[in-house]
Structures are given as C-alpha cells and as structure tokens.
Amino acid sequence: MSDIPSLQFPSRRMFLQNSAVTAAALGTLGFPQSVHAAGTDVLRIGLVGCGGRGTDAVINALTADPHTELVAIGDTFADRTASCLKTLKENKDIAPRVAVSDDSVFTGFDAYKQVIDSPVDVVLLATPPHFRPAHFAYAVEKGKHCFVEKPVAVDVPGVLSVQKTCEEAKRKNLAVVSGLCWRYDLGVKETIQRIQDGAIGDIMAIESRYNAGTLWHRGREPEWSEMEYQIRNWLYFTWLSGDHINEQAIHSLDKTGWLTGDIAPIQAMGIGGRQQRTDKKYGNVFDHHVVFYEYPNDVRVFFTCRQQDNCSSFVDEIVIGTKGTARILTNLIKGEKKWKYKGPKPSMYVQEHEEMFKSIRSGSPINNGGYMTNSTLLAIMGRMSTYSGQDVKWEDVISNTDKLGPSKYEWADAPLETVAIPGMVPVA
Fold first, then answer.
1. What φ, ψ does residue 104 adopt, rounded to 5°?
2. What does the pLDDT read at residue 366?
3. Rounded distance, CA 263 to CA 375, Å?
4. Contacts of 239 (CB under 8 A, 6+ apart)
5. pLDDT the model gives residue 337
6. What is the rounded distance in angstroms from the CA atom of residue 296 to the CA atom of residue 305?
7. The predicted structure's pLDDT at residue 416
8. DSSP 8-state secondary structure symbol assigned to residue 337
9. In what order do the strands lie in the sheet containing 176-178?
10. In angstroms, what CA-CA distances link 360 with 32, 108, 342, 382?
C-alpha cells in the first residue's frame, strides 16, 4: 500500500466545516457560456466507460436535452465500445445525435485521456470506481464538465483526491453532477424536505436497507489475463468496486447522509461476511454487511445490505421521529402530519442530466462534490468496520492512507486479495 503525500487528512471538525462550506456553495457559481460547439448551443458529450451503466447514462443525457450530441467514447475493451455504439444507434430517439466516428472511439487504459482530450464539453465518467479519481482529476484539469457515477472512489486517499478535484472544479466554474440519483427524484426530494422541516419532529433513528439479489458475472475466458478477468468482473474485487456496500448500497447510505444533514458520524460498528458467494470466482467481497452508525445528538442509523438469492428483498429507509415516521422511497409520512407524495415522477436518471445541462446553460453550474464524497466515505467506513470486526471512528477513516489496487495497469497478473476475516485483519 502507498500514501498520497500531496493530500492533507483533515480532522473531523475540519471535515464538518468543509462540508458546510461545500453545501452552502452549491449552485452559486457563475460560468461563461462559451463552452458549446462553435456557432451553436449544442453541448458535446464524451463517455468514459461503455458498460451498461455508461450506455444508459448516454441515453439519459441525450434524452434530457435535445441540444446535445455524443462525439467520443472510450473503454478499456473494444467489445464494450462496439456493444455500446450498437445499442445507441438502435435507439431511434437518440441515434441522430450519436455523432461518433471511427477515429473518436478509444480503447485501453488511457482511453479516458483520449476521450477527454477530444472536443467535448461534458464527460460522463462510468468506469469501475477504482479509476474514478484519476479520470475525474484529468477531466477537470482539461476544463470539462463532469457527470460522476457513484461511488467516487474505493479508498480514502481516492475520496480525498476527489474532494480536491471538486474544489478545483469550483474554481474553474465546472459542473460536477453525481450519479447518486435519488437526490434528483422529485418524490424523495419533497419527502426529505418535509422531514427536515419538522414533519415527524426530531429524527431519532433511521432503518436503512438495501437487501437485494445477486448480480451478473462475466465468467472467464482462457485468453484473459488475471487483470482482464478482474476488470471484466469488477464487482467482486474490493480494489475495483469497494465491495457492494460501496458500489450498490451507497444509494441507501447517501439517503441516510442526506437525512442527517451530510455531517460525519461519530463512529460505526459493523458485522459482515459471505455465506452464499463463497466460490473463488466471487473474488474477495462480502455478500452481506450490517452497520450501526452513531451520529451527534444520539441519532442512530441501522443499516443492512446484502446480495443473496432466495432471500427477502427490501430497499427503503424508515425514519423514526419524535412525532411520527416516514418511508423515503414510498414517499409516505405518518404521524401528526400524514402525507403522501402525489406529484410528478419523471425519471431521476434523466432528471439529473437535465438539471446539469440547465445549470451549465444558466451560468450556475451544479457542484455535488460535498455529498458525493461524504457518502462514499460512509460506505468505506462501514466496510472498514465489517472487514475488521472493530468499531471505527470517523478519525480512523479520514486518516487512513491505504490505497487499494496495483501500482500500474498492464495485461498480466493482478492482486489476488484474500477475503477479510473479521478479528484477523486490521482496520483498513
């Protein structure tokens, strides 16, 4: 493991102060409107990461604004770029604005640089999370607006790098929109706003669950190196995904962060392991995590997530207040003030891009940096506790210098990490 010497690790008080400043600054920045394709109001999009999420992100983006076009794409693998383009060109609603030529399709570990160096205004970053900090830093260095898929990193140094990049994006008046999509769901936004306005009194506890089934596995081909195998099956390797508490269940932790004001918890206690996914092909991730987070003012978050088949599924937050309860995804409040959301429900996946493009055109680019980094740290904090079996304080998290993954990328061997055994591995 290696340190990132250029980063400073703030105290919990400093982090809270920085988070407050970030939140206060959202949507307040000016931006010159001279970034569009010459002589037009078209925003040119580049895609980095052409898997299912990246392909869907392009569809969402082109759907959100008719004055956009896709002009460059890149992925580690050529078959992924080909599959992505095929899907996009078969979509009659957006195909006329898929303006990707043969010489604007890039592959390999440096494909992101070639996409970003293309004549694009906005970059969609949708590779496995391990690569996000480097890709995001390069995009902002080159003056590009960014849609940053969740999570933003797999380790603390990566998150702190993203925090610095978000600050640089502010200085350059660049939009940074997070893939934590529930923040853009109108029903969820109004539900949480009502809770924060006192609809259920003071929040005492939150029960948060992301209990779901298993996901895909790409198998293994004999010609693949270990590096290629792991990247193609990145969900199952902590250095690439951060484990499913970070890659998938971050959506739930983001909502609990939102409800608690995006402040740092005091500490976390976690239990986790793997019971179904014990085969070697599943790398070193767990298949279940349970984490209790303790916040200031004695607020508790009781969080569970699992990826196991033939088990009950439930994804939602139940918020318990002094004057009632609420269900976040159900958009329901019970208690002294009963309420159910009945307003419009546009696609949150489209909405986040629509708001990003509007913010760019209006001269006030969005910057979601505060909560997207805080929520990633919540997930990493939970993983640190479940992997180690130890109570983890916030100071333990933000002072951690362990960087996951190899020091270089090549089609050869890759790290074969062992499965963590709680009580036998350090807090890391």
1. -120, 25
2. 98
3. 10
4. 130, 154, 404, 405, 406, 415, 417
5. 83
6. 23
7. 84
8. S
9. 105-107, 68-75, 43-48, 122-125, 145-148, 176-178
10. 9, 30, 30, 35
Q: CA nearest 304: which of 295, 296, 315, 294?
A: 315
- Cβ 115 vs Cβ 74: under 8 Å: yes
pLDDT of residue 8: 33
Q: So what's the pLDDT on residue 414?
A: 86
Token reading at 321:
């207040």
- pLDDT in the model for residue 425: 85
Q: Which two tokens stand for residue 50?
A: 């052409």
> 413, exposed or middle or buried, with CB in 10 Å at 0-12, 13-18, 19+?
exposed
Q: Give CA–CA dist 177/161, Å, rounded.
A: 17
Nearest to 106 by CA among 61, 136, 135, 73: 73
Q: Nearest CA to 258 among 374, 380, 385? A: 374
385/379 Cα distance (integer angstroms) = 10
What's the pLDDT at 28?
34
Angle ∠(326,286,283) on CA atoms, nearest 5: 140
Strands, E assignment, 96-192: 105-107, 122-125, 145-148, 176-178
How much is the pLDDT for 151? 98
pLDDT of res. 216: 97
Q: Could you give the CA distance from residue 378 to residue 263 in angstroms, rounded to a whole number? A: 10
315, β-bridge pairs: 210
The CA distance from 54 to 62, in Å, is 12
- Report which of 336, 302, 341 is spatially closest to residue 319, judged by C-alpha positions: 302
C-alpha 416/C-alpha 420 separation (Å) is 12
Interior angle at CA 155, CA 425 and CA 231, nearest 5: 95
Do the beta carbons of residue 143 and residue 173 sit within 8 Å? no
Residues in the chain: 428
pLDDT at 36: 56
Consecutive 10-residue averages of pLDDT for the chain (428 residues)? 31 38 36 47 98 98 98 98 98 98 98 98 98 98 98 98 98 98 98 98 98 98 97 98 98 98 98 98 98 96 98 98 98 94 98 98 97 98 98 97 94 89 88
Domains of the chain: 12-182+350-368 (3.40.50.720), 190-343+377-398 (3.30.360.10)
